[in-house]
Fold this sequence. Notes:
The protein is an alpha+beta fold. The chain is 29% helix and 28% strand.
Amino acid sequence: MSKESVKNQVITHEFLLTLEDNYHEWLKSSHVKLIDVDSCGEFYISVRLNKLSSLDVKVSKTVEKSAMAIIELRTNGMNWHVKDVPDWKDSCNFDVDFPYYYLQYSNNDCDDSFKFYLSIKCKITWFGFKDDLVFSNLYQNMKQFLLSIECSDVIIIVKNREFPTHKNILASQSPVLKSMLTTTDTKYKKKLLRLRKIEIDVAEELFLFLYTGKVNKANHDYDLAAKLLVVAKNYQIIQLINLCGLILSNNITKENALQLLKLSEGQKTDNVFILQERAAAFIWNNRREVLTLANFKDSSKFSPESLFKIIEKIPD
């Protein structure tokens, strides 16, 4: 299975167990496949009664390779506990409020034993292994042609700047550019192609990615990364959409979380899956602060899908 097919998947599992006077004893669920790819391994849930007011819960995976995911836990219909895990190697730990009022004590007055039936629902939004999310060695053989006139067969014009490029490289990564370069329309048959509504600094990052699989300034410039994501969506450059989504999702704040959730909209596929899911998780975990900001009054402009990402976490 390709790398694309092992990303952006949601796995759910319910662990049903009974606690009976077993303080400090770890109870483990069965192993569950993360996704239908053996190399990704399995995960399992471990639960221990810490005290009558809390549970220690671990969600562990069998492959220690660093991965990115959002892990959500819910016990007996209570609030969801949501963790954005950018470096998941082995276990992700939760301290979960224990609904002690559900305890069923023994009818024997001399017996302090109890029995507690527990349901732990786990939802894992799997983004993939971190090494697979950055395509650092993808285009080593093409790097030599970046902005090189050698073998160039089309000049891209942005504002007043000319970029010597190669049709095969552009067409292989963007179906929109491919259509423009292979059309029978005479205005595109020439060796000059003008791209409108793109700033020069954005174009520089765009061509850097198309030839090297990397970006430079966008790694540290939030506004540039946001503009680059819009261009990547317009030209349907899937790998660049994913990379920009990853960069922006690592820079979520209370002030920009709603903007990033909005920016992740408008895709028929899940190419901005990471950004959308991490923004929604951040908003949920910081809902008291985020939802009182002035810009939340524009929430009506969000798509139903985006709002549902937050609303679905509210207990029944």
